[in-house]
Structures are given as structure tokens and as C-alpha cells.
Design brief:
Layout lengths: L6 H9 L4 H8 L3 H10 L1 H26 L3 H12 L6 E6 L2 E6 L5 H12 L4
Antiparallel strand pairs: 1-2
Helix pairs in contact: 1-4, 2-3, 3-4, 4-5
Amino acid sequence: MRKVIKVSDVRKLAALDCTYADAAGYLGISQSTFSRKLKEYPRLQEAWDQGRAIGRVSLRRKQYNLATTSAPMAIHLGKVILGQDDKKIVEHQGDGLKTKIDLSTLDADNRDKLRQLLTSGTD
């Protein structure tokens, strides 16, 4: 007996970010059969691709909404989408020396030591 696979089911499963194995299990078929059906029937593949896109948009919308009330989410989106980061690079030139230091890797004690070195002799 042939199993009927509904386009709407495939779209919904993909929107939930199901794996092929998850979708196949839900539909009661093997993963290889599910994969083969997507290749054989372009409408199923289109539904899968569309469902994945719908799921990503839905997640993004939820993240944006959460960012209005959650500083960590706003920071995460700033890093991922806007390319912002936590690194503070200090560039120092003097006495033929040019160096860049990533201050985010220094602990408080070493930051104090660096501050003393950079300010010594600049009275």
C-alpha cells in the first residue's frame, strides 16, 4: 500500500526544523524513502524548502521581539547581524614601537599594569 504524503505536512514539518529522520518518522516512512520522494516530486521539495524558510523567519521574528526585553538577546543579535563584538583593541605607538593589544583577554590586574606602563613617562 502506497503512503500518501501531503504537501502541507511536509511544509509544517520543515517549518519546525525537523530533520529528514524526524519527518520520515512522523510520516511513517523510512528516511531513504522520504529523501527519494523529495527528489521525485518537485512540489514536495518546494514545500520542504518553503517550510524551512518559514521556520527561520518565525524564529528570527521571535528573537527580534525578545531583543526588546532581553539585553542578552539584543547583544547576541548585534554580534550576529551587525558584526559587533566585545573586543577592545588598543593601539599604542611610541619609541619606534607599534602594537595592538586585545584588552578583552586581560584580567583586571594585567589591565592595571598595562595602564601604568602606557601612562608612565607621559607627565
